């Protein structure tokens, strides 16, 4: 595809480019623990609802709706610790949260993947469902300022890149390649910001 051709720059392409720009900005703001990540993310997810619907990636489309809800949730959680209006600190995941994640991802993937495969014209149904499941878990953990959310994003973003190349969503594939870099930066910076007592022995040593 010729990016310099006038025929390439349709309304759909421009929508995707704006989605990419706001997507990069919201992840960069999240890595900086800046509360503006949430309103910027809402702009990006609204655009990607349209983009993924047209690409027949219905699980990813539904994921954007959940992202919108989780962004409102995260916006509140980042500003409150318990009943107090105090900025929430970065903490490590608990064993219970790891257990929930490891149970949720395969169950959600199989259930949604089967539904999409049997009842819709969705492309890459199980891959779409699996990346959606992992992304939901990662976004929920980010909303609660759990350090490991960035490591989970690293894994799922690496899977998203070839999926979007296959679907010829080239700006979006580039976006997720950039997300890989931003996820590592986010993990590094969040880890530095943690109080020593919130780190496990292994993390403190690392």
Structure notes:
The chain is mainly α and 206 residues long. It has one domain (11-80, 92-192). Helices cover 74% and strands 0% of the residues. The protein has eight helices and no strands. It has helices at residues 11-31, 37-54, 58-79, 95-119, 125-143, 149-166, 170-193, 201-205. Helix 1 runs antiparallel to helix 2 (37-54) and helix 5 packs antiparallel against helix 6 (149-166). The longest helix is centred in the middle third of the chain and has 25 residues, at 95-119. The protein is globular, with a radius of gyration of 17 Å. The protein starts with 10 loop residues before the first helix and ends with a helix. The model has no long low-confidence stretch (mean pLDDT 86). Keywords: Cell membrane, Membrane, Transmembrane, Transmembrane helix, Transport. Its main location: membrane. Required for nicotinamide riboside transport across the inner membrane.
Give the ordered list of helices and strands.
Answer: HHHHHHHH
Structural class: mainly alpha
Find the count of extended strands (DSSP E, 2+ residues). Answer: 0
Radius of gyration: 17 Å
Mean pLDDT level: 86
Classify the helix fraction into a percent range: over 70%
User: Could you say which overall geometry the principal axes of the C-alpha atoms support?
Assistant: globular
Count of individual domains: 1
Oligomer: single chain
Distance between the termini: 44 Å
């Amino acid at each position: 595809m010729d990016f310099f051709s006038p025929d390439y720059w349709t309304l759909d392409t421009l929508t995707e480019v704006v989605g990419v720009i706001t997507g990069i900005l919201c992840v960069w703001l999240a890595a900086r623990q800046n509360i503006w990540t949430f309103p910027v993310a809402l702009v990006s997810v609204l655009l990607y609802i349209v983009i993924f619907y047209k690409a027949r990636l219905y699980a990813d489309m539904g994921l954007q709706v959940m992202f919108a809800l989780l962004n409102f949730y995260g916006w509140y959680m980042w500003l409150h610790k318990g009943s107090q209006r105090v900025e929430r600190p970065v903490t490590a995941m608990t064993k219970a949260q790891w257990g929930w994640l490891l149970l949720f991802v395969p169950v959600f993937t199989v259930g949604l993947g089967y539904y999409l495969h049997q009842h819709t014209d969705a492309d890459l149904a199980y891959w779409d469902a699996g990346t959606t499941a992992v992304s939901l878990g990662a976004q929920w953990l980010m909303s609660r300022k759990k350090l490991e959310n960035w490591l989970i994003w690293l894994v799922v973003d690496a899977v998203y890149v070839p999926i979007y190349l296959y679907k010829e969503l080239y700006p979006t594939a580039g976006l997720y390649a950039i997300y890989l870099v931003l996820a590592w930066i986010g993990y590094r910076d969040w880890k530095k910001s943690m109080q020593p007592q919130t780190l496990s022995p292994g993390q403190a040593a690392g």
